[in-house]
Amino acid sequence: MPELYYYAQLMANRHECPEAYMDLYDMFSWEETINGIELAGKDSISRNQSLFYLLRAYELGEESAVYYVYEEFGNSITPLNRLPF
Questions:
Q1: Buried b (16+ CB within 10 A) or exposed e, 38-57
Q2: 3-class SS at 62?
Q3: How many domains does the chain have?
Q4: Residue-number span of the structural domain to which 73 is assigned
Q5: pLDDT digits (tens, 9 = 90+) for 57-83
Q6: Any residues with CB less than 8 A from the CB of 26 and at least 6 apart, and which?
Q7: Least confident interval from 17-21, 39-43, 45-49
Q8: CA 31 to CA 76: how far, in whole Å?
């Protein structure tokens, strides 16, 4: 798991890889622990970071992110084909 996080961060930050952003969102959403450390942080910083990863994956066109974006935000998010850029 720590290796997956490291490589997902690397691919997201250096290569703007939408799948990596989605993997990071998934990791922050898992209800598991590793060596006693809870992965899905209950604090607002962890929650905001996971939502950033989700929205970045969505913005970069990750198809699997669409479902989760609408689950999290409902219809308050602009569909990808209407983004101004």
A1: ebeeeeeeeeeebbebbbbb
A2: coil
A3: 1
A4: 2-82
A5: 999 999 999 999 999 988 787 666 645
A6: none
A7: 39-43
A8: 26
